[in-house]
Amino acid sequence: MSGRRRGRGRANHNNNINENNNNNDLAAAVQQLVVMNQNLIQVVTQMNQARNPNTISDMTKAVSLQRPEYFNGKGDPIKLEAWVRSFDKIFTTLNCEENLKIPQATHYLVDNADIWWTENKDRLMALMPRNDNGVNVVRAMNWEEFKTALRSEFFPEHIKRATNTKFNNLRQGSLTVQEYYNQFQELARFALEFVPTPECRASRFEQGLDINIRSALGGWDYSTILDVYTKASNVERVFNERNAVVGDKRKDYSGMSEPTQGKKPIYTRSYSINKTTNTSNSYFCKSCNRDHHGFYCDGNPWKCAYCGRNGHRTSECRTRLREQGNQYQNINFHQNQSAGAESSITRPQNRGTKEETVTITILSRIPMLDRPPVLLQLD
């Protein structure tokens, strides 16, 4: 019995030792996790401080790394809006606090803009009751109010009227669709009263397009300017491809009517081949009742079944007309060669009694008149 008790005692003692060792290991692991968590918190805090600087000096360094543009206040509304947008993006990226925005932005005012800010800073930044969502609060000017004051000074009414006039008169003209779109978007930002909705902006953009492109668009109503711009660009691309094909055909027709040097011209039946596609006459599609000569209703160009090129039908194919013209020219040439004959014309001399015989070869140059040569007697 005593031996059994001693064995049980040793087992309990060993279990206690193992349990204590496990507890020590667990405590060490927990302590290690606590240290790692503290280090992680410290790293995250440092990263947040570097990303979101809250002091003026830290924010100044962070803003300078973004390399913002300077604004000189020379009365260019496009440059003014570009400068304002750049700082809006910088402040959003850096999570800049409201009280640090104006000091950072005014550091990048130069020339006329810097003089204006220096002369009006105390008045604009003075503590006074200001409206915050219907509540009067005594505070200094915020960033949105600063932008309003800046626009009032450097985008006055007379410049705004001139910009609106320029926007109203804007047309594509000789510009590409891309160039016209860029200018339209720049000016539309200053003429919101004329294009207050996306539908109005899309309609106004379409009205300024080239008449040929506008006709190809079909007068549909578009909800956004991007829809009009995309379709107009595709139509312009197709037009350019068609013009390139027409240019190649013009080269093919150059010199067709020139006679061979040293030979008499042979008068053949003439075929008039227009060098440009006749688009002056209106063409109305039977399917959609729209004018889109040279294109199907979906905007794709016609394809000629004779030459395989785009932009015209078989009845308008210049290659076919040219080849038919060459065939008629060869036929007339052979007819003219076989129509020659010699005729003797007896003409009395003015002096004396002898008669002078003149032999003249008459070539029929008009194959349609199927008649033999005629002997003419001259008195």
Automatic annotation (TrEMBL):
GO terms for molecular function: nucleic acid binding; zinc ion binding. Residues 12-23 have a biased composition (Low complexity). Residues 1-11 have a biased composition (Basic residues). It comes from the Eukaryota. Pfam families: Retrotrans_gag. The keyword Ribosomal protein does not apply. The keyword Iron does not apply. Residues 303-318 form the CCHC-type domain. This is CCHC-type domain-containing protein. The lineage of its organism: Eukaryota, Viridiplantae, Streptophyta, Embryophyta, Tracheophyta.
